[in-house]
Amino acid sequence: MALLEIENLTVEFETAAGTLRAVDGISLCVEEGEVLAIVGESGSGKSVSMLAVMGLLPWTATVKADRMAFQGRDMLNLEPAERRKIIGKDISMIFQEPIASLNPCFTVGFQIQETLRQHTDLDRAARRRRAIELLEAVGIPDPQERLGSFPHQMSGGQCQRVMIAIALACDPKLLIADEPTTALDVTIQKQILDLLMDLQARTGMGMILITHDMGVVAETADRVVVQYKGRKMEEADVLSLFERPQHPYTKALLAALPENAVGDRLPTVADFSLDDTPYTGARP
């Protein structure tokens, strides 16, 4: 049984200008221990799709799907209390901007322990020990001292590590990492990605990695879903996608990699018509 199955997911927002369809019929699945990358340019519906799974979209959003199931359980029709038992425990998410996601009014130790208080039966002393273990596991120096630090007292890379610690606190079966290296310098980006992949390999959890960096996809993913303007253009295992891309948009994304620059001019991705039929057939 797949960890997560999504069939024909549609997300619409009511705006002053009318109804905006941000996600248009997306289908995907994630198996246990698998890393699925979702790629595409900004605005392609990658984050919105996963926020719909987490139930974190605003009230202006309308979410519909033929199926949205986690380990066979219907996520769309679960009672809110039952859904809250799953979200944050069995399914966790690392958000794009750790500084914005962490509460500036509480210490990082409190925020890690709050997740444990909500989803486990650990007492206060055990929650503190677990928080220290998590900070140590994600590479935070002097974890006992850092429990009392506020987010503004930590660097961007350290805050991202704290977000990872919170996401992993309850040993989730599925981790959604939404552009986990955004706004970090190159060295820290590699450290964070190496940390995530090491933790994924050791725990065996499934992972959905949202990114626009095809280099990251090549290094980390087992399968890839390519999105554009809310639709899935192509899906393939990572080797097939890079060696034999089928959809014109996928080919354009790969052609726009910096190593394909001509002189001092970087390649660009042209606008595509959604009349282009997404590639769904067998790969050669």
Describe the model.
The protein is α/β, with parallel strands linked by helices. It has a domain at 29-56 and 75-233: Rossmann fold, CATH 3.40.50. 36% of the residues lie in helices and 24% in strands. The chain has eleven helices and eleven strands. The protein has helices at 46-54, 80-86, 98-101, 108-119, 124-137, 143-146, 156-168, 186-203, 214-220, 238-243, 248-255; strands at residues 4-15, 18-30, 35-39, 61-64, 67-70, 73-74, 91-94, 174-178, 206-211, 223-228, 231-237. The model has no long low-confidence stretch (mean pLDDT 89).
Number of strands: 11
* Mean pLDDT, all residues: 89
Please name the CATH topology of the domain at 29-56 and 75-233.
Rossmann fold
CA radius of gyration is 19 Å
Poorly predicted parts:
none
Overall spatial form: globular
Report the major sheet.
6 strands, mixed
CATH superfamily of the domain at 29-56 and 75-233: P-loop containing nucleotide triphosphate hydrolases
What is the share of helical residues? 25-40%
User: How many helical elements?
Assistant: 11
Report the CATH architecture of the domain at 29-56 and 75-233.
Answer: 3-Layer(aba) Sandwich
